[in-house]
Amino acid sequence: MADPLSTRAREIATVARDVLEREGPDALTMRRIAEVMGIRAPSLYKHVPGKDALEVAITIAGFEEAAAGFEAATDGAADPLAAFVGAYRAFARRHPHVYRLMTDRPLPRADLPPGLEERTAAPLQRATGSPARARAAWAFIHGMVLLELTHRFPEDGVTEQAWQVGIAAMQREA
Amino acid sequence: MADPLSTRAREIATVARDVLEREGPDALTMRRIAEVMGIRAPSLYKHVPGKDALEVAITIAGFEEAAAGFEAATDGAADPLAAFVGAYRAFARRHPHVYRLMTDRPLPRADLPPGLEERTAAPLQRATGSPARARAAWAFIHGMVLLELTHRFPEDGVTEQAWQVGIAAMQREA
DNA sequence: TGACGAAGCTAACGGTGTTAGCCAATGTAG
DNA sequence: CTACATTGGCTAACACCGTTAGCTTCGTCA
């Protein structure tokens, strides 16, 4: 399933990601991607097996960028947990549509480069010290990010307090 | 926008909810809903303005059921926070597709019965004591539920530990 | 020169939400 | 009782979606 993508296929995946980030998930259509590339939709299938494969490619690129960001932020940080939260939140804010694509559905684990999932999870694992604490912390951060992205919270200062409350609780826990 | 639904419209909304719960979001199609009702898709539009309105109706029904469950669970409970978590998790497990529909997108606040959002949020508000703590707790619970629903966690006992860790952290916080 | 593969194209299929317009049944007013 | 309007079905169709089939055009290489 995970054939390494040809050069042209990687171009398509890059355009797909751009379209998603700039125009949102509704615009992520084969016809729109093709239009941006100056070709017709069916031609994409000479290079890519289908839309799903493009979404997987975007997901992989997202995880790689996220993992690198998490590592850079936490590496040698005085407060690794706070640093992780900052990096996680920054990634989700910078790439909200990609973040949703990465997290809304079950992970296509069979198509992911081996070790990528673990690599992405490792910085939080190290910052919290135990798998259970890592999962709880991840849930809090993921939940906060999603509730912010879906405009669930009133836009007041209370949300910032909630971040602090949650981080403090995790600190004391760790 | 929020005309009160006619009898037939409420029937349609009920069928729509059944289809969503039983067959998943991909099956939630105007043609499928019509098929279950024994009519053709365009006839639905004699009663309902469009698919969006049905999704809003399902969302409202979901919030009303959830709010009632939260109230029943926390009312007079020895440990209101734990009781709330149990009720929240139970609702999400019992109606995973409805839960996703309710939380994946921005709330259609203009079409919601006045006070419903606040009513749903109130039990957690009471259990945590402050808006900031309520938001943090909600984020944790929402994140845990979603990560479970999207099979993000390995299915081992650690997830149950993570629930306990998170609840304990919120307890101490409150 | 001739064969062949790569990479584009158009046409089309079955699916989606939705609109237009028709028609039969029903209920109501004169 | 008749005449009319409203209700609630219907079919046909549109624009969009992902995708497939099949054609063509071009560059490479024997």
From TrEMBL, chains A, B:
One of its GO terms (molecular function) is DNA-binding transcription factor activity. Gene3D superfamilies: Homeodomain-like (1.10.10.60), Tetracycline Repressor, domain 2 (1.10.357.10). Residues 29-48 bind DNA. SUPFAM superfamilies: Homeodomain-like (SSF46689), Tetracyclin repressor-like, C-terminal domain (SSF48498). Keywords: DNA-binding, Transcription, Transcription regulation. InterPro entries: Homeodomain-like_sf, HTH-type_TetR-like_transc_reg, HTH_TetR, MT1864/Rv1816-like_C, Tet_transcr_reg_TetR-rel_C_sf. Residues 6-66 form the HTH tetR-type domain. This is Transcriptional regulator, TetR family. The lineage of its organism: Bacteria, Bacillati, Actinomycetota, Actinomycetes, Geodermatophilales.
